[in-house]
Here is the input.
Amino acid sequence: MTYRYSDGSTPVGLDVGTSRIVAAWPDETDYVYRSELNSFVALPGSKFTESVLRKENVPHTVRANEILVQGNESERFADLLGAESRRPMARGFLNPDEPESLTMIGELLRSLLGTASHARQKLFFSIPAAPAGAADTLTFHEATLRQMLSELGYDAKSVSEGLAVVYSELEGSNYTGIGISIGGGLCNVCMSYLAVPVISFSVPKAGDYIDASAAAVTNDMATRVRLIKESSFLFGGVQPEKTHQVIAVYYDDLIQSLVGAMKDVFTKSKSLPRLGRPIPLVISGGSTMPLGFRERFERAMQVAEFPVPISEIRLAGNPLTATAKGALIAALSEM
Ligand SMILES: Nc1ncnc2c1ncn2[C@@H]1O[C@H](COP(=O)(O)OP(=O)(O)OP(=O)(O)O)[C@@H](O)[C@H]1O
Ligand SMILES: [Mg+2]
Here is the structure.
């Protein structure tokens, strides 16, 4: 039976990703999700366009002489106009190079979540783990999102993305194991022992890196490479076109960087518990979607001789919603 507040509303789980923002709510038997692309594009100002967007319920913001279209429709408009879409976040964090970053995320959150209907409606949102050895942008990122969510009326707390994957996928091992999210901006890794995060870190390379690097080689737009990657890329066999070959090269580069960083961090860690038996590892996030990804990752782990014994390497039930689901499980556990 789902926990409901007196007005019928429920706690909320939120995945604030570089690529997509996903919200999760419980319903009677399962969870429901809504997502928006975390991007926007500027269109020339026009009363006529404005009225059409309003009629179609497309999230947008009207400015003096332009209209900013946010979320899922932004990618299509960018592709049609031959422009790159603009991104409020980069490599997992609020994007310091995008002046509209805060306004755009604020608007996306408002259109996705609405204002809290209950006075102390709980919401857990995902944050990345700090990148190994990088400057601290996490404090600002976390505080800013918490502030925006409190302004919408939510009682908001953060949960690290890797731990959210553990909450979502590792109930079977009592939340002992390794959860990894391979998203748009970065990879998040969390090793958990009985739901306690023991090692967490991030690697600032993921789907966006593949798109941008491949686009530079093929002299194409990153948005276009991304569309090709999402619709027709898979591992193994002969790649049908040059773009697919180049995507494969950068995908392998990403896997090498992730597995290399994991080996490095786990080898050096002093807090590595003596577990006595192999633990499961779950991979999640949009970049795990191409057919054959899991096998490729598993092979790289074997070749690298990863220092922690692993019982299985599994793909999350739904790689696109696992983080939001884990955040929701965190929120529900506090009821
Ligand atoms: N079917 C697919 N095939 C290949 N890549 C995909 C597919 N679907 C989504 N992606 C890629 O997954 C990435 C987005 O994944 P996800 O939504 O998990 O990231 P995010 O949570 O927004 O970002 P992050 O966690 O890095 O901040 C993008 O690079 C996107 O191109
Ligand atoms: Mg993510």
